[in-house]
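[job 0417] fold request received: Probable lipid II flippase MurJ
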Amino acid sequence: MLRNFLTVGSWTMLSRVLGLIRDQLLAAFLGAGPVQDAYLVSLRLPNMFRRLFGEGAFNAAFVPMFTAKYETEGRAAALRFAGQALSALIAWLVILTVLCELFMPLIISILAPGFQGERFALALTLTQITFPYMIMICAAALVSGVLNGLGKFGAASAAYLSFNIIGIAAIFLGAYVWHNVAFTSAWGVTISGVVQLGALYWAAHRAGVAPHLIRPSFSQDIRALLRRMGPGLVGSGVTQMNLMVDTIISTRLPVGSPSILYFADRINQLPLGVLGAAAGTTLLPLLTRHVANKDRVSLHTSLNRALDYALLLTLPATVGLIALAPSIMAGLFSYGHFTVADAMKSAQSLRAYALGLPAFVLIKVFSPGFFAEGDTSTPVRIGFFTLALNLVLNLALYKPLAHVGPPLASTIAALVNVAILAVLLRRRNVFKPDPRLKSRVTRIVGAAIMMGLWVAAAQKFVAPDLPNWHGVWRLGMLGALIIFGGVVYAISLDALKVVKLRDAAAALQTRIARRRTR
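[job 0417] inference complete; emitting C-alpha cells
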C-alpha cells in the first residue's frame, strides 16, 4: 500500500508543482483584478461537475463495483460493465453541457452575484469556453478508475500532468502571441481535457482494459450503479455546494478577493491534493477487498497505517504553511501584476486554510471506509450538516474578516466533518486505532511543532523582512528555510523514534539497487 501511496503521491506532486508554475504565471500576467476574478470563476463550474461526476460519487460507486466484478466474474464482464458505464456517463454529460451552455447567463449570475459589467461579461464568455472540459475529464476519470481498480496507479496519475503543461503553454501563447492570456488559458483548459482522455485511453488499451462505447442502456448493472451513486451524488454535491458558497461569498468582497483566495487555496491544495488523492485513490480498492473477504483485522490495519502516513506528511506541511505563509505567498506570487500587498492578504487566507489541512486530508482517508462497504448515504447526512454550518459561518465571518472569513469557515466545517466521520467509523468497527498509531501520532505532532518553532526563529533572526526582499533573493531564502525545516523535522522524527534515519537510508539504497538490477 505504501508503494502505491507514494506512486500516486509522486505523480500528483509533479502535477502540483507544474500547477504552481502555471498559477505563478497567471498571477504575474493577470494580477489580482477583474480579469483574473472572471477567469477563476470560469474554472469553478467545470471543475465542480468534474469532481461531482468524475471523481466524486461516480467513481466512489464505480471502482468497488468494477473491482468486485473483475475479481468474481473475470475481465470480460468487468470491461463490459465499464463500457456501459462510460457510455451512460458521456450521454448524460453531453445533455448537461448543452443545457448549461444555453442557460449560462443565469448560472453565472447565481455563481458570481457580485460580478457586474465587465467581470460578468468576461466570466460568461470564458465559462462557455471551459465548460466542455467537463465531458472529457469525467470520461478520463472513469478510465482512470478502471486502471486504479486493477492496481495500475502510475499511468492514471501521470496523464493528469497534461492539464498544467498545456495550461503553461497557453499562458505564454496568450502573453506573447495572441495578447490575451485569459482567453488562451480558457481554451487550454478544454484542449487539455481531450489530451488527458486520449492519454488514459491509450494506457488502458496498452494494458488490455480499454472500455468501449456502446449504445447506452439501463442494464441491471447500470441500475445498480445508479442506486449506489444516488446518495453519494448528493453527498458529493454537498461538498461542491460548500465550495460554491465560498465562491459566491468571495464575489461579494472587494475586486480581487476571489483571486486572493484562489492563490491561497492553491498553496493549501499542494499538500492536500498530493496526500488526499494518494490516500483516497489507493485505499478504496484495498479496503473494498478487505470488506469482501470479511477481514476486519486487515481493514483496521490498513486504515491505521494510511492515517499514520497521512499525518506524518500533513502535519509538517500545516505547521510550515502557518509559520512561513507571508514569505511563501510573496516568494511565489509577488511578481508582475501581483503586488506584495496582494501577497500579504493571500497569506492571511492561507493560514486560515492551513489550520484545516489535516482535517481535509483525513476526510479523504476516512471516506473510503464508508464507500468500501457500499455505504454512500451516511456521508450525505454529515455533508448536509457541514454545508449548513459552512454557510452560517461564511455569512457570519465574511464581513468582519473579509478574505479570511471564507477559508476559516471551511476549516471549521472540515474539522467538524472529520470528527463525525471518525466517530461513526469507530462505532461500526471499521476504524479501530491501535496503540502504535496513538503513540506515533503524539510523537509526529511533537516533531512538527518543534520544526515550526525552529523555522519561525530562523526567519526572525536571519530574514525578518523576507517578503519585501528582491524576488530572486527572497525565493532563495524561502527555499533555504523550507530545506532547513525539512532537516529539523527529519532529525526530530529520528530523536522521537518515529522514523529512524539510518533504517530509512538503508531501505532507500536497497530500493535503488533493485531498480538498477532490473
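[job 0417] notes: Residues 40 and 248 are 12 Å apart (CA to CA). The chain has one domain: 2-433.
[job 0417] exit 0
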